Amino acid sequence: MLKIDQLELGPIQTNCYIISDDQKNCLIFDPGEESKKIEALVKKKNLKPIAILLTHAHFDHIGAVDDIRERYSVPVYLHHLEKDWLSRPNLNGSGKYATLPDYRMKDADVLLTDEKTLEIGSFKMDIFHTPGHSPGSVSFSFGKEGFAIVGDVIFRGSIGRTDLIDGSEKRLLQSIEESILPLPKHMILYPGHGPETTPDQELNSNPFLKVFKQ
Question: In what residue span(s) does the Metallo-beta-lactamase domain sit (predicted)?
Fold first, then answer.
């Protein structure tokens, strides 16, 4: 059975998820900032990171990527449509804010291209391309374990913003309709910000999804 640890990192309190198996191997999702906090949790739990996976490449999800990658010598996975975003502040959004430094990370080691089943060590997950918040947003579903990492596609009572580079509310709602709502209704959705939710809860209470109940 997999275990999930959550850290809220950086100025926007981005959720970083650390998923570990019985052998203490772990995957790190969206290390957005504050690498020392991630390292402290890994050490406390005696975990061994084997990969970093990014739901997308906005600055608040990538700030600690290089620190963690170099600390543990692990590969970074990212959708190919955002392959240039890690190193370009104008794309990852950090260049939009004068109060932020320019975020420039090294390229991803593995580019995801298709919706498929991905296996890393003992971890097995289904990848869904869920664009709209950003062109390369992906969600990772651990069906047997009953949860999914959904990034900024959907939140409890809300959806991801669509006013950034290549964002589209129409495409985002389509992604939610085609990839998120068909998941088991009580599957736990772990978003990029805020508390977890479920497809059933959002279908019945999220004001942005009223169109799907008509």
Answer: 13-193
**Under 8 Å between Cβ of 10 and 32:** yes
Using CA atoms, how far residue 143 sits from 52, 53, 110, in Å, is 20, 17, 23
> 60 and 37 in contact (C-beta within 8 Å)?
no
Delimit the domains of the chain by residue range: 3-213
Q: How far apart are CA 73 and CA 83, in angstroms?
A: 20
pTM of the model: 0.96
Q: Over its length of 214 residues, how does the chain's per-residue pLDDT go in tens digits?
A: 899 999 999 989 999 999 999 999 999 999 999 999 999 999 999 999 999 999 999 999 999 999 999 999 999 999 999 999 999 999 999 888 777 889 999 999 999 998 889 999 999 999 999 999 999 999 999 999 999 999 999 999 999 999 999 999 999 999 999 999 999 999 999 999 999 999 999 999 999 998 776 5
CA angle 89/85/93 to nearest 5° reads 40
* Residues 105, 6, 34, 24, CA torsion sign: negative
3-state percent breakdown (helix, strand, coil) of the chain, nearest 5: 30, 30, 40
